[in-house]
Design goal:
It is a peripheral membrane protein. It comes from Trichococcus patagoniensis. Helices cover 29% and strands 45% of the residues. It has two helices and seven strands; from the N terminus they run βββββββαα. Helix 1 packs antiparallel against helix 2. The two termini are 31 Å apart.
């Protein structure tokens, strides 16, 4: 049976590396699922949950909070290069909640003083925090 080799790389090094049956990601144009023998492709990723269905008997899944990046698929190898990526089990939920609240405050302040650039930065920070919180809910008990 064919499988995918999935590598998630950040500036800090390899964040995730495993064999998989499928990889589901959100690109800037919408969702995509990569299966073995997929046509070569390079796509930009959105801030979203990356789902890796691993090669195991019970079809275990890993959820990874990816803050944008690029996904390249070629010869059953899926390389994801991102500025940051965290597995569900590694996310500090309290820190993510604080980041969410801080981003919401920054958005409100930027809106009040009509600073569009700061508002957009805060909006991206909010998206990242909400993504991390959402992915963390996929932890195994």
């Amino acid at each position: 049976m064919a499988y995918l080799q999935v590598n998630v790389v950040t500036p800090d090094g390899i964040a995730f590396q495993h064999r998989a049956k499928a990889v589901t990601a959100k690109t800037t144009d919408g969702g995509i699922t990569i299966m073995p023998n997929h046509t070569p492709i390079i796509v930009p990723l959105a801030i979203a949950d990356l789902i890796v269905t691993r090669v195991t008997d019970e079809l275990a899944q890993n959820h990874i909070a990816v803050n944008g990046g690029i996904m390249e698929v070629r010869d059953n190898i899926v390389n994801i290069i991102a500025n940051s990526a965290e597995r569900e089990k590694d996310i500090d939920i309290d820190r993510a909640e604080v980041a969410k609240e801080r981003a919401e405050r920054r958005m409100a302040e930027a809106r009040d003083i009509k600073n569009e650039k700061e508002f957009q930065r805060a909006k991206i920070s909010l998206s990242k925090a909400v993504n991390r919180i959402g992915v963390s809910k996929n932890r195994s008990s």
